[in-house]
Amino acid sequence: MGAQPFRIDVPDSVLSDLKRRLVDTRWPDEIADSGWTYGSNLGYLKELVEYWADGFDWRAQERHLNSMPQFKAQVDRLGVHFGHIKGKGPSPFPLIMIHGWPGSFFEMYKVAGPLTDPASHGGNPTDAFDLIVPSLPGYGFSDRPSAPGMNAVRVAEVFTNLMVTELGYERFGAQGGDWGAVVCTALGGRHASHVAGIHLNMVTTRAVGEKGEDDSEAERAWQAESKAWMRDEAAYSRVQGTKPQTLSYGLNDSPAGLAGWIVEKWRTWSDCAGDIESVYTKDELLTNIMIYWVTQTIGSSVRFYYENSRGQPLVPEGQRVEVPTGVAVFPKEIRRPPRKRVEQVYNVDRWTEMPRGGHFAAMEQPGLLVQDIREFFRPIRGSSTNRGA
Q1: Whole-angstrom Cα distance, residue 230 to residue 202?
Q2: The domain 4-27+34-380: what is its CATH number?
Q3: Which residues of 11-47 are buried (b: 16+ CB within 10 A; e: fewer)?
Q4: C-alpha angle 195/201/207, rounded to 5°?
Q5: For the segment 310-348, what is each residue's pLDDT rounded down to a tens digit?
Q6: Is 305 known to be catalytic?
């Protein structure tokens, strides 16, 4: 049957029900003047929910999302949603960009134009990409897996089949952060016959590990940073990796609860000095949250943590990622293992220390990310079959 055009069209009844739930939110108390110390700040969340109920225009955002050509295809018996923007240049190179949690395909909207049509954004048309932006299985408008085992290795298989079998790209590049980086690692480590190179804006500790014998200054700094992360920030991952179903009931039922769970991560993981709206608008934050809400995928998205905590290694035992690997290191990224450790697992061809930015690089620092992606893939571009959806 092949990929079919897809448009987002949320029923009015879903929006009416959402507004009722927002207006009827039962708020908890809060320690006075505690800010964000205990988690999402009550005052800010009330402000965001009030805007969500009375100021946010979903239909305008829906039109904006639908300006990206979107499709849905059955791949390995799973409905996979993806954006597909053809490049404008002499030989566009296919690139799959993969989001993570708590993000969505919407994260890529600022980089899509510069990557696919560089000449219109001050670049060289020879740097054009055919851009494929999927929603991870169980996220957004992709189907929710109905059986266990949909981990990053399986997703890498699904996305390889999407690129090769469905879209006809025999050779392609992959880019991602967060879970996107994990899937890219599996793509590079297990599908090197099709993957020309991978570019990461976060290196996963699932690949490089937490501990090592190196006693360098960089390794000691990493160990201290890792210890602080596990103490102060990792609880969400432990819950999602062990009891995702228990968490899902509240988040799937309460939009305010969903916003509180997600927004705190966007603030904490971004280079915003504590002021989340210095980096993102309310509309951007809520559009991302809405994708989880209208598709009811928060449960299946957090279940991905459980599946990966019990999945097979990203790279077969005794092997490493041999395809060229580019790493963009943003200073406020949540995990930043040292280069020496990363090079034990990846064939690092490019390593860029960024001057600013955090976890959601495509939205925080799109210009820096686009430039690094262009420069990394320049020497490894080659001919590609371009059938397209």
Answers
A1: 17
A2: 3.40.50.1820
A3: eeeeeeebeebbeebeeeebeeeeeeeeebbbebbee
A4: 70
A5: 988 999 989 999 999 999 999 999 989 999 999 999 999
A6: yes
Decide: helix, strand or coil at residue 355. coil
- Alpha-helical runs (H) found in the chain: 12-23, 42-54, 58-66, 109-116, 152-161, 179-190, 205-208, 217-232, 235-242, 244-253, 255-268, 282-295, 298-309, 339-343, 361-364, 366-377
Which residue has tokens 């490019």? 350
* Distance from C-alpha of 325 to C-alpha of 347, rounded to nearest angstrom: 6
Q: State the Cα–Cα distance between residues 258 and 256, nearest whole angstrom.
A: 5
When mean pLDDT is compared across 81-95, 201-215, 348-362, the lowest value belongs to 201-215
Tokens of 132: 């494929």
Instruction: Please report, for the chain, the start and end positions of each structural domain, with discontinuous segments joined by +.
Output: 4-27+34-380
Q: Name the active-site residue from 178, 271, 346, 372.
A: 178
Catalytic residue from among 130, 143, 359, 372: 359
Question: Is 64 a catalytic site residue?
Answer: no
- Burial of 320 per CB tally in 10 Å (0-12, 13-18, 19+): middle
C-alpha distance from residue 4 to each of 35, 70, 73, 108, 132 (Å): 47, 9, 6, 21, 15
Quote the CA–CA distance of 126 and 341 in Å, as a whole number. Answer: 34
Amino acid at 207: A
Nearest residue to 95 (alpha-carbon basis) of 62, 64, 61, 118: 118
